[in-house]
């Protein structure tokens, strides 16, 4: 008995890329905390610009009537004193420039894998056509659910003209539905794979920036500073803190803009390659369908349907009786 579910042969598996482990937080004699690095990651990946702007617009007030425990002394790492805002901005620009080259390599690899996958789909295409030929040349239980008209119930009384009219209308629509389901399943697989690969890659890239040694030191310092700001009368510290927050916000905006641009390129690449393959196969499917319908009519295949349907129903009644 044939299965009624639309055939969807296992797609050629796209690559499972071997990934290097994510960079671990750097450690030194000051034993930088992992928490401060996670704070930065969250700000890049999840925080909104409105939140960051609100923090920038309203830095912690130096209020004397609030009660705080005496803060621990905060050590500003000597290496941070030597790094100006200009130097830090240049580090970001250099990193983004390097990232662009890495993106080209990543995108080329993705496109090669898509090409291999599409080549592998040729065999799946042949199997799909074979499945369609078998499905519609013979009767199976699923037809009673798929066919919305009462043609099967009236099958014993239909003449040749009625059968011809049915296969050219409702029968053709059902075959087209099978095609759409098959192509949609494959398209969904390709999209999901592409998105997963992209998400893994871009998240690994931004983590390499967040976990840079000097950024970890800086983030740890300002995290501690924010815990004790009310006891710090040093306005120079407040200015540096504000610069730090503004710089993080600027980097986040630029990163998000870059990500959106690359995601648009990924969508366009999928459209160019996949759409052509899908269009070519749709033409071939229509040719197959016209040929199949003519064959179905010429061989008067409805007689086979009626015979096979009666046999299945008789077998079902026999098994139920037993």
Plain-language structure description:
Residues 91-305 form the Tryptophan/threonine-rich plasmodium antigen C-terminal domain. It is elongated and about 95 Å long. The chain is built from ten helices and no strands. It has helices spanning 34-45, 49-57, 78-81, 85-137, 142-146, 160-168, 170-210, 213-227, 235-298, 301-321. It has one domain.
Task: List the SSEs and their pairings.
Elements (H helix, E strand, L loop, with lengths): L33 H12 L3 H9 L20 H4 L3 H53 L4 H5 L13 H9 L1 H41 L2 H15 L7 H64 L2 H21 L1
Helix pairs in contact: 1-7, 1-8, 1-9, 2-9, 4-7, 4-9, 6-7, 7-9
Defining key terms:
mainly alpha; 322 residues; 0% strand; disordered N terminus; elongated; 10 helices
Rounded average pLDDT: 78
Strand content: under 5%
Poorly predicted tracts of residues: 1-6, 15-39, 46-74
Gyration radius (Cα, Å) is: 32 Å
Number of domains: 1
| Envelope shape | elongated
Distance between the termini: 20 Å
Largest sheet: none
How would you concisely characterize the structure shown here?
With 322 residues, this protein is mainly α. It is built from 10 helices and no strands.
């Amino acid at each position: 008995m044939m299965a009624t579910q639309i055939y969807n042969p296992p797609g050629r598996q796209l690559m499972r890329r071997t990934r290097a482990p994510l960079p671990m937080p750097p450690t030194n004699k000051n034993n930088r905390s992992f928490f401060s690095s996670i704070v930065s990651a969250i700000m890049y990946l999840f925080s909104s610009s409105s939140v960051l702007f609100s923090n920038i617009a309203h830095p912690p007030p130096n209020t004397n009537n609030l009660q705080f425990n005496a803060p621990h002394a905060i050590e500003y790492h000597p290496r941070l004193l030597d790094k100006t805002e200009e130097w830090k901005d240049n580090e970001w620009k250099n990193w983004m420039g390097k990232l662009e080259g890495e993106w080209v390599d990543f995108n080329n690899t993705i496109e090669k894998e898509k090409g291999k996958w599409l080549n592998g789909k040729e065999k799946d295409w042949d199997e799909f056509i074979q499945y369609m030929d078998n499905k519609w040349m013979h009767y199976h239980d699923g037809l009673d659910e798929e066919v919305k008209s009462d043609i099967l119930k009236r099958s014993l009384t239909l003449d040749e003209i009625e059968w011809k009219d049915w296969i050219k209308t409702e029968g053709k629509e059902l075959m087209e539905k099978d095609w759409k389901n098959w192509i949609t399943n494959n398209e969904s697989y390709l999209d999901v794979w592409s998105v997963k690969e992209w998400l893994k890659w871009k998240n690994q890239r931004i983590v390499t920036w967040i976990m840079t040694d000097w950024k970890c030191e800086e983030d740890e310092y300002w995290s501690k500073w924010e815990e004790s700001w009310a006891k710090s009368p040093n306005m120079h510290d407040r200015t540096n803190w504000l610069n730090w927050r503004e710089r993080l916000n600027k980097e986040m905006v630029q990163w998000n803009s870059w990500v959106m641009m690359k995601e648009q390129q990924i969508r366009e690449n999928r459209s160019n390659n996949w759409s052509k393959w899908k269009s070519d196969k749709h033409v071939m499917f229509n040719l197959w369908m016209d040929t199949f319908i003519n064959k179905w009519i010429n061989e008067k295949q409805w007689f086979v349907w009626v015979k096979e349907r009666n046999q299945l129903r008789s077998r079902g009644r026999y098994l139920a009786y037993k």
